[in-house]
Amino acid sequence: GNPYILKRLSPWRNLPLADEARVLRHLASQGVVVADYLPADDARLYAGTPDDAWVLMPRLPNDVFSPAELAIPAIGVAIGEVIGRMHQALATYPWPANSYCDDLAGSLAGDLALPADIARLVDAQRSAMIAPLHGLPTQLVHGDMTPENLILRWPVERSGFIDFDHLPVAPRIWDLGKYLSRRLRLRWRGGSVPAGEGRLDHLVGVLTGYKRVNPLSPAEIATVPTMILAGNVLEASYFRLVAEGRLSRRMLADHAEIQA
After folding, report:
1. φ and ψ at 8, to 5 degrees?
2. Are 214 and 87 in contact (CB under 8 A)?
3. Which residues are paired to 140 by β-bridges?
4. Is 33 helix (H, G, I), strand (E, B) or coil?
5. I need a labelling partner for 247 at 20 to 30 A (CA). Which of 1, 49, 208, 234 fits?
6. Cα–Cα distance between 74 and 55 in angstroms, integer?
7. Can you say whether residue 167 is alpha, beta or left, with left for phi > 0 and alpha for psi between -120 and 50 degrees?
8. 160-161 and 150-151 beta bridge pairing
9. Contact 26, 118 (CB under 8 A)
10. In 110-217, alpha helices (H)
11. CA separation (Å) from 22 to 28, 164, 229?
12. Window from 3-12, 79-88, 157-166 with minimum mean pLDDT
């Protein structure tokens, strides 16, 4: 009677499947709600080939939150708390993850595929965007901390996470910036909350909740605007490269929506 998901894994995975599975098991052991892989009777983690692998995982139950509910500051606080606890658990992972370091400063300094008017604005701010990123503490982070990968529940303290296919070593504030950039950009469309209303409260709530369980340094807090901007800029460049066929990667269902 339990629902499961059969998930096709991308060949673009960033770390070996066994390492990802060990991270998921560690998170579950620390009380973080995740969809960890179910091994087969012969102990295999996947079916198929390494480049076209399928894994079986439990389906995490989720609840639908309206824009008005997301605008409630207490909801943002609770979301920040669960992300903070997830980061605490990742920081105590006791083995090498065989992952990679996410060079955010290098990505922002590189060639970005942006519309001309946006590119001019970004070029004028690049140095100011990149400077605060140097010297931030790093750890294992989710790496794709978007609202779609946070499975919300009532109460929010029971919420969980999916899609740990990245797991880079990066500043933990990058996960918060990625989540907020996507949440503030898209998640209020078509809702009952007037444009802009509740968004700042949500941002403040998430940061307040995170700091309550996992304190941030002044330098990390100071990079929040940069991380939100970086989340928008880097995603815009990535999705444009994919949509135009300049980056050979599978076009996902949400690429067109996010590019728009």
Report:
1. -85, 125
2. yes
3. 169
4. strand
5. 49
6. 35
7. left
8. antiparallel
9. no
10. 116-130, 172-186, 199-213
11. 10, 11, 32
12. 3-12
The SS3 call for residue 116 is helix
Neighbours of 25 (CB within 10 A): 13
The predicted model scores a pTM of: 0.89
Q: Which amino acid is at 33?
A: V
Q: Counting runs of H as helices and runs of E as strands, what totals does the chain give?
A: 10, 8
Evaluate the CA torsion angle 30, 31, 34, 38 in order and state its sign.
positive
Residues 99-125: pLDDT tens digits? 999 999 999 999 999 999 999 999 999
Strand 138-140 relative to strand 150-151: parallel, antiparallel, unpaired?
A: unpaired
- 183-218 residue pLDDT tens: 887 655 555 555 555 678 889 999 999 999 999 999
Residue whose C-alpha is closest to residue 76's, from 206, 201, 233: 206
Q: CA-CA distance, 47 to 14, in Å (whole number)?
A: 19
Which residue do the tokens 């901007």 mark? Answer: 229
Measured CA to CA, the distance from residue 71 to residue 250 in angstroms comes to: 34
Q: Where does residue 197 rank: exposed (0-12), middle (13-18), buried (19+ CB within 10 A)?
A: middle
Going by their DSSP bridges, the two strands 52-58 and 47-49 should be labelled as: antiparallel
Q: Is the separation of the CB atoms in 216 and 173 below 8 Å?
A: yes
